[in-house]
Amino acid sequence: MNRLFQPLQLILLVVALLRPASAECNIVKRGLSGDLLLIGTVLTNQGALQDSSVFVQSGRITHVGDICGLGARGGDASVLNCTGSVISPGFINTHEHISFSTVSPFPDIGERVSHLFSGTTSIIGGGMVLGLARNLDFPEGLEDGLDNRLVIYDTFPLKDGLGVMRNGDCDYGPSSIDRDTAIGYHRYISHIGEGIDVEAANEFTCLSNVAFDTTPALGGGGLSTDIIGPNLALVQALGLTPRDFDVVAARGAKIVWSPRSNMYLYGQTLNVSYLLEAGITVALGTDWLPSGSATMGREAACAASVANEVFGMKLPPKELWKMATVNAAIVAGFEDQLGSLEVGKLADIVVFEGRSQEDGEHDIGTADPFGQAIFAPQEKIELVLRGGKPLLASSTIRDLTSGTCELIAFGNSNKIVCIADELGSSFKELEASLQGVYPVVLPDLPPDEPTCKPKLYS
Ligand SMILES: *[C@@H]1O[C@H](CO)[C@@H](O)[C@H](O)[C@H]1NC(C)=O
Ligand SMILES: *[C@@H]1O[C@H](CO)[C@@H](O)[C@H](O)[C@H]1NC(C)=O
Ligand SMILES: [Zn+2]
User: Fold this and answer.
1) How far apart are the first and last CA of the chain?
2) FRET label pair with 15: which of 150, 240, 262, 397, CA 20 to 30 Å apart?
3) At residue 351, does pLDDT exceed 50?
4) Which residue's CA lies nearest to atom 9 of ligand 2?
5) 83: Cβ below 6 Å to ligand 1?
6) What keywords are annotated for this sequence in UniProt (predicted)?
């Protein structure tokens, strides 16, 4: 025995081993009012509030903080004790292309369901189905309670998606975005400067500098413009130089960061350290499945790893969590209604189980409550509320759910999934229809995940 191994350490070790593997929520009280009180560690911008609470009434948050502040309002509410778990706003995925995620007959549902079951309650995805996560780029997909407003998700603003590459001019054709149209949108989110070549850099120049190309092209268009403003979020942006990012920062434009897709396709990604120092609002997005992450948690894991390995920066779990919640809501232009647990906002809430010691090597942020949320595998999700409505709950709290629900195994734990009513088909039918593509319930590390490692050139 090691001489440093003293009896006290032995006692501490035994205590640690005897501790329950992880805390789970339980129902303390089943009330009649339909209101719900959640008790646990509440994740806020100001920090993680231990032994705190969130109160939900009619789909909205009406109290956050010390339970004593609730007064008599909690009288006939259901009470869920999630001590040891973390209570987080649902994630907002700001960059997907869901229609590319699976094959028919359900062109986009599989991907969306796995997003929902990994803590994502809103998505900007270029495609949609009714129900499940909110689709912030489709007025008809906003779901209960969200005010209608316009998020324009324009994959290729220069209409160069069919392979038009320019260098030194802006002759992308007559349908490119113009300044008046772009600045008129509530939010304009588009791929700009995707790639690491001069043609990618050229895209940003054509959209940020009116003096760059003043000669119209034959057949229309061909002029550079300047759309860089606070309503713009640039997706990808790999072709931008530090000076370009200074322009982005000065104009209050935002960045949607998809590190896994960047690393897989181009072997490099944005210098997140530079972006954050410049004061740019950065949100995470998974991009499509062929090169991106299956869940926001896997995107965050990639972000943490490239920040460290490529840029020598330790990105705190809280910073990554912000990129998936409050920053993402700002990018989407819904920050007054989504993205944080605050009075008046919609109750899009996810509860993540406390992490146990056996969670092992994937446990990047063991002790950190923000890490418990942002790196959580699907198995660790105890509750997903969209607008206060339970769409998923651990089987221990099944009495909280209503409507048509199904018992589904997520790895080693059982969940109650209540999506059949809004989907019009059962979860099991959906799962069966997705044969051959990604499973709806993913293991901790999804199979064949695109790499996030820097490319090694010999
Ligand atoms: C919640 O659970 C914790 C730990 O299991 C316990 O100490 C606490 O008293 C419980 N709170 C309520 C309101 O039941
Ligand atoms: C990334 O940006 C930081 C500034 O925050 C800078 O010091 C560093 O040199 C940059 N790294 C690379 C590889 O460009
Ligand atoms: Zn994309």
Assistant:
1) 47
2) 397
3) yes
4) 311
5) yes
6) Hydrolase, Signal
